[in-house]
Every structure is written in structure tokens, then in C-alpha cells.
Amino acid sequence: MDLITPEYGLFFWQTIVFLILIFLMARFAWKPVLNGLRQREETINDSLASAEKARKDMQNLKADNERLMQEARAERDAVLREARELKEKIVADAAEEAQEKADSIVAQAKTSIEMEKRAAMADIKNQVASLSIEIAEKVVRKELSSKEKQHQMIDDMLGDVTLN
Fold first, then answer.
1. Contact 78, 85 (CB under 8 A)
2. CA 146, 152, 157, 162 torsion: positive or negative?
3. What's the pLDDT at 2?
4. DSSP class of residue 144?
5. Is residue 129 a contact partner of residue 138, using CB atoms and an 8 Å limit?
6. Distance (Å, whole) CA 5 – CA 116
7. What is the DSSP letter of 3?
8. CA 152 to chain CA centroid, nearest Å
9. HSE on the CB side for 93, CA within 13 Å?
10. Which residues cross the membrane (predicted)?
11. Has residue 60 got a pLDDT over 80?
């Protein structure tokens, strides 16, 4: 039973040893432990602040990336729109140039046809005139085969001619 009921001397010495231990701990170990805890707390706070800063930086980067993506999309759309407009302009210019060439070719063909028509008409007129002269020559020779017919024809012609 001695173990269960402590004596006063033992209690006294245990209290003194406990107080000395507290004094030594307060004097030598308490400050380093508290400094370690403060440093640990500062490290944790710094880490939390760094994590918050990193999170904000990531949000800013994400916002910047999104803005850059929107700008890239807008630039891509502008380039595509410009390319479409350029294509349409080139096609329209080519169609206009082709139309102008076609009109020029048609005009040249009309001019050529008109010139050939005039040349053909002139040739036909020349041939008609030549044939008319030949026919008239044959008719005149036949009708003027005798001297009497020649004199009668001269008289008829002189009668038709009026002097001014």
C-alpha cells in the first residue's frame, strides 16, 4: 500500500524536482520550442500566402490565356473574312475581265463580219456590174447589128436627153 499513498517527503521532493524542471524548461527549452512553433506558424502562413498568390496568378494567367484565345479567334475570323473578300474580289475581277474579253471578241467578230459582208457586197456588185455590162454589150451588139438600128437607137437616146 505504500505505493498508493505517497509520503509527504516524497511529495515534497517531487514538487521541487518538478519546479526545477519547469524552471529549466522555461529557461532553456521553452523559448526554442516557442520560436520553433512561431517559425512553423510563419512558414505555414507564408506557404498559405504563396498558395493564395499562386492561385491568383493562375487566375490571372487563365484570364490572360482566355483573352489571348479570344484575340486569336477574332484575328483568325478577321483573316478568314479578309481571305473570303479577297477571293470574291479576285473571282469578280476575273469574271469582269473575262466578260470584257468576250465583249471585245464579239465586237471584233461583228466588225470582221461587217467588213466581210461589205467586201462580199462590193464583190457581188462588181460581178453584177460586170455581168450587166456583158449582157448589155451582147444586147447592144445584137440590136446594133445593122446600121439602121444604130441610127434609130441614137435618135431615141438623143430624144431622152434634155439639155439644161
1. no
2. positive
3. 63
4. T
5. no
6. 149
7. T
8. 94
9. 6
10. 12-30
11. yes
Angle at the Cα of 6 from the Cα atoms of 5 and 11, rounded to 5 degrees: 155
The letter for the amino acid at 65 is: N
- Read off the C-alpha cell for 151: 441610127
Cα 163 from Cα 3, distance rounded (Å)? 185
Q: What is the distance between the alpha carbons of residues 74 and 82, in angstroms, rounded to a whole number?
A: 12
Give the list of residues 6+ apart from residue 153 with CB closer than 8 angstroms, or none: 143, 144
Q: How far apart are CA 18 and CA 141, in angstroms?
A: 174
- Side chain identity, residue 96: E
Query: Residue 128: what residue type?
Result: V
Residues 70-121: pLDDT tens digits? Answer: 999 999 999 999 999 999 999 999 999 999 999 999 999 999 999 999 999 9
Say how far apart CA 44 and CA 57 lie, in whole Å.
19
Residues counted in the chain: 164
- Phi-psi domain of 144 (left: phi exceeds 0; alpha: psi -120 through 50; beta: other): alpha
The amino acid present at 160, given as its one-letter code, is: D
